[in-house]
Amino acid sequence: MDAHGWPKTTDVHGWPFLIARGHRAGYRTLLAPAPLLAVGDHTVLADHVEPGAVPDRPGVIALTTPSGRPISVVHATRQVSAADLGQADAPRDEHGRPLHLLYGFVCLHARTVTPDEADLRTALTTALTVYRTFLANENGFATEAAKPFPLRSTLEPAAPERHRAVARIAVAAVVLAVLLAGLRWVGVPDEPSPPGPAPTVPADTKPCPPGWG
Amino acid sequence: MDIVLGIFVLAGIVAAVMAFLDSGLPWRGGPPPGEAGIRAAVPTFRVVALGLPGSGKTLLLASMYNELQTPSRQSYYLSAAEGDVARLTGWFAQMADTTRADQWPRGTFTSETRHFSFGVRARAGDTVHEVLRLDLLEYAGELLTDAAETDSGRRTELFDQVRSAHALLGIIDGGRIRQHLDGDPQGWTELHRTLNILVPHLIGASCPVSFVVTKWDLLAHLHQDENTRLALVRDLLMSNEHFRTLVRLHSDRRVVRLIPVSAVGPGFASVDASGHVVKNRSAQARPAYVDVPLSAVVPDLFDQAEMGLDATLRAALREEARHHLWRAPLERLRTAAMLTFQTSGRALLHALGSPAAAVAGDVLMGMFLDSRAMIAGLGRPGAGAQAGEAERRIDEFVRVRRQVLQDMRAKPAMLEGRLPSSRLPER
Ligand SMILES: Nc1nc2c(ncn2[C@@H]2O[C@H](COP(=O)(O)OP(=O)(O)O)[C@@H](O)[C@H]2O)c(=O)[nH]1
């Protein structure tokens, strides 16, 4: 664990989550990874994880929490069946609409995840247990803190850092070019300036076209 | 040193230009004549429907689109992005399918917050003109109610939209009214909760506010005369102090409507023993009044702005509208822009409220003048034989726009004619 209570980047655990509505109570996060819940970062799930069209088919999304943590989310959507709740009829909300679960698991660091179905099933089992508890007392229910489970899914470290670095350098180069063009336009360095230190230009950025700056 | 000075000068110029662009000043330098001028004259009006989960927002949106997707009962029709069309027609099909009595589209998840951007189009000969755009926000009603997730970025997005809306719709669930009238105390509790949540958002709004009573079909048994039925609902709502106050504060300077709508139409659904809405197998969806709330947006915005002006300024604008008609098409674009700098024009833009600044002032002014001339029943000459192609195109566009505005105005007017109780308070 690091200083914030987060596991190390090499951690291979998944944290189940569940977003659903009840018969009366509206959609809310019913189950969220404990480290996200502790700092209010769990809202990123309800805000950004969108339901899928095909039942129980996993989707993967990379998100950044409000406090700036990168996470990967494996998610699926399912209409709650009578069997899910061990009852005779398919449950509906008070308006007569079917009930749906948006469930899955979170990897607490940015990763490239190839989900294993067994992990999604584990997350669903936990989600359904929590959902039944919620349905029994919709108003009194408070979001549950999920515990981690070991994953079978394949996790690879994401490689966005290099991309980000390149993007930063590109932005810096554009800003520099605009500044130089602007300086020329306002006519500041009309005469040759005294020699100064040569500007550092990143190796992989293209030189400006002739006539610029 | 010179370089540092240069950077400061440059930064100053950039900041000044940005501030100028941000200021929303109407003047943008005249667009070139013809197509570019037409495209620049297509404003977007933002509408937000505020309603609790399950109040009928999604089905109203789907049904409204279904009604207005062809120009069958008016000159205009709505166009939307392919993905949005698929979503809207999917919801409508699921709703209208009576082979599954209990199949309704599921509730909207918070993450499904989405802007539906509709182009309001009309045809003139072979040319289709887009006259304006209407932007509607679809969101989960939980964002208005659920205190558990107060930090949701979606909630911030919703309230930002509410603040910058050109029109707000307060959605009142007709199913709750039915529940109350059936003697279920939950109905009354939920109605009060709805008003207590909606009214604070609506009371401070400077844009037009309408109330929409959804699931109107479920109230058919209330009285056989539809206007009496609506009057009964109005009286019920007026018994809530917050609602009454809002209507009193708003109605002297703006239009406040009470629009009954049914996404499915009479006889399509009923309430079963457990209180669920179920479809009747042999019924067909025949939506009622679902096109009115959106059609009323632009006419109400203009009427409200005019009502906010004193008699002298109103007269000056009416006079301007009369002259406006006789100007050549390009001249009309230019004078509309110039008018935004004159006292009457500035007062009008001010009366249109701060959100209206997001629509270029000259465009708004041109539409306003056209709509006033139309109300006054003034006819307009054609572009003339000597007019160039660009002028003829602009002239055609303006004609189409006038027709669209006229047809939009006709919808709430028809409702008022049929159901006088739809104007709050009743005249
Ligand atoms: N009878 C009837 N029921 C409706 C109508 N509109 C919605 N409903 C019912 O109300 C439920 C909730 O509507 P929906 O549009 O999903 O609500 P939203 O959560 O506000 O988007 C639907 O599933 C229907 O059962 C209507 O016009 N007539």
TrEMBL record, chain A:
Keywords: Membrane, Transmembrane, Transmembrane helix
Protein name, UniProt field: Uncharacterized protein
Membrane-crossing segments per the record: 165-186
Comp. bias (Pro residues): 191-200
Region (Disordered): 191-213
Organism per entry: Nonomuraea fuscirosea
TrEMBL record, chain B:
Classification via InterPro entries: DO-GTPase2 (IPR045528), P-loop_NTPase (IPR027417)
Domain of life of the organism encoding this protein: Bacteria
Record's protein name: Double-GTPase 2 domain-containing protein
Residue ranges annotated for the Double-GTPase domain, each copy included: 50-226
Annotated source species: Nonomuraea fuscirosea
